[in-house]
């Protein structure tokens, strides 16, 4: 009896578990038995591996071959175990070195022609192998750049099963093959690198200042205004004024992109992501899920970036309310019969809505045809518990001709192709302000587990040396006593006040900062 073992990685969310792949060859009729809770795609690897081995010129044994994936109680999913299964079988047959395959983690899907195909989730898988203490990982050639993003582990890129067998000491003559490349990405997800700049926005200076506060403290925002007021335009430019991601955040965002199958390349994602799902999206597409492999949803893909819900009242109430838990905890745990997958979900929520079904309420040049009860019902689709988690509430007005001229812009009608010009401040200049404010907050929070004001707990702000004097919080205290804000709203207003103080480089919020924060919290009209 011959036994060999190697290793692969099973992903559960972003968490990787090293799986021991054992191969046993025993006397008996030819058979290929795969045990250890494989899913359907992994169960089909028997046919892929056998055909790939034959076409690569290193066929498997004709005796009974048993492959065990350990720990057996851990569910394994996907085709990324193909390479590990194949090299373990070849090692058990004596075609490659048993000691060599035992010291390498193998990742990759095999095609029937023996070439290795790229797989999603290579970055978190390689990171899991490094954390487990492995020094070598073998990946498809197309995933090599992505795997190299993880420091402290040797990456071995191979194009085919034959190349892998030769690397492990197999006595096979090299056979040149054309490696399978990454598929052409059809992802159209927006990022902050789309050439959008805050200088494109005319007027709405108060709203832009409020967005600067939101960016400095990572606060959630809602905007209500008629069509054409610029809500979508402002929200799309919010990522452009956010700071670059830290190394830890960049690795997390890039790992999520890798897990979703989006091309990663050889560099970490350094700019905040931007997710804008359509209002017909389901709850599962927002938080993640799936009947087989649990895949991340929009809230996960927006981690360390912006989740923008345009036409928010058009989303089903059930979809909107699933945001409440990740808004508080910054994580989402998806429970299915097959197991539980946890993902990070620290995003900045931006809601945009019309003031009524016809969208003309409050407009100076259009008359609203909606009844008062219709307007209340429309905005009531945004539940109170959800809005209570939104820090800044803005009312956005349409830009008048006078305001457009005052902003230094040229009327679209007087320029070709509707082009406008403005002397407004650029996103880069605003980003410097935001970076400075976040640096002040990070220095203050250096001895805490938080780095941004939106993450700080209310109890920390209300007790100890950071507790503000009554003179500074008098207006906030009165609002709380009247029931105008909840306890959660009280704490979130304090966080806003600290962000305003950081932008002013003040040591602590004053009564002016607390009043301005309460003004933003309860609804600001531009």
Question: Could you please describe the fold and organization of this structure?
Answer:
36% of the residues lie in helices and 17% in strands. With 526 residues, the chain is of the alpha/beta class. The N and C termini lie far apart (79 Å). The relative contact order is 0.10. Mean pLDDT is 89; it is low at 188-193 and 410-423.
General shape: elongated
Question: How far apart are the first and last residues' alpha carbons, in Å?
Answer: 79 Å
Regions with little confidence, pLDDT below 50 for 5+ residues: 188-193, 410-423
Number of helices: 22
**What is the CA-atom radius of gyration, in angstroms?**
28 Å
Number of strands: 19
Order of strands, widest sheet: 11-14-17-10-18-19
Write the SSE topology:
Elements: E1 2-12, E2 15-26, E3 31-35, H1 40-43, H2 45-55, E4 64-70, H3 82-92, H4 98-102, E5 105-106, E6 109-110, E7 116-117, H5 122-131, E8 136-140, H6 144-147, E9 154-158, H7 161-167, H8 205-217, E10 221-224, H9 231-237, H10 247-259, E11 274-275, H11 283-287, E12 288-289, E13 295-296, H12 298-301, E14 306-309, H13 317-321, H14 324-329, E15 331-336, E16 339-344, E17 348-353, H15 372-379, H16 384-387, E18 392-395, H17 401-406, H18 427-444, H19 458-462, H20 470-481, H21 487-503, H22 511-522, E19 524-525
Parallel strand pairs: 3-4, 5-8, 8-9, 10-17, 10-18, 11-14, 14-17, 18-19
Antiparallel strand pairs: 1-2, 2-4, 6-7, 12-13, 15-16
Helix pairs in contact: 2-3, 8-18, 8-21, 18-21, 20-22, 21-22
